[in-house]
Amino acid sequence: MARISSYPYDSTVTDKDAWIGTESSNRRTKQFTAKAVADYLNLNAKVNIGGQMSFTWDDVEKGGTGTISKVGGAGSGGAFNTLTEVYLSKNEVNGQDVVKFLEYITTKDILLGQGDQISQFGHYTLDTYAVDTNPNFYKATLTYLGGNGTIVNSQQYTLIHFDISDSEDVTYIFTQGVPAATWTITHNLNKFPSVSVVDTANSNGFGDVTYNSANQLTITFSGAFAGKAFLN
Length: 232
Known about the structure:
With 232 residues, the protein is mainly beta. It folds into three domains: 18-47, no CATH class; 52-162, Elongation Factor Tu (Ef-tu), domain 3 (Beta Barrel), CATH 2.40.30; 172-231. The chain has helices at residues 34-43, 99-104; strands spanning 18-22, 29-33, 52-57, 67-70, 85-89, 109-114, 121-131, 137-148, 156-161, 172-186, 195-199, 204-205, 208-213, 216-231.
């Protein structure tokens, strides 16, 4: 075999490029492709990124270190909008303790996404986060804001703090088709927006706004009418 120093350098790496290495289970020499190495590093959270945590879904409630599971167990096959309470291991898959960071972002938005499928995700508000009777797990309550797809058992999921208001001014338009003196609007903007109202003739309307939560408000008018409310 030629000396390693005699081989030319290649500064362009492609998925099918390979390295020679040793398989730990049997000490045999194997080839490892660039794609396989990248997948291993990405899916097992071996490259740490600030604010990014990785957990493996387990249909067993509190299934072990590095897991996320539904309160009551099961959950796989269900849509992301079915998640309201989950258990999170205090340590993610690579062993890092996540407690203080998750305590810090409680009441804020999070994104829970499948590690190898970016379009499989749930967007939530992390409402509460508190230690369980088993101190290795914390119970989190969630409010679903949006997403796509279903949960897969034994799949790895990345959890990050996610605030879409950082990048855009989020607005919501509500249409009241039937005349009413009280409009209850669930907007899921996760904020307390300013409100403008018009009737069906596009004339300004005026009412008393009550903020029921960061995602819902009620407007009370002196009389019933139909129209639109613009929230931003």
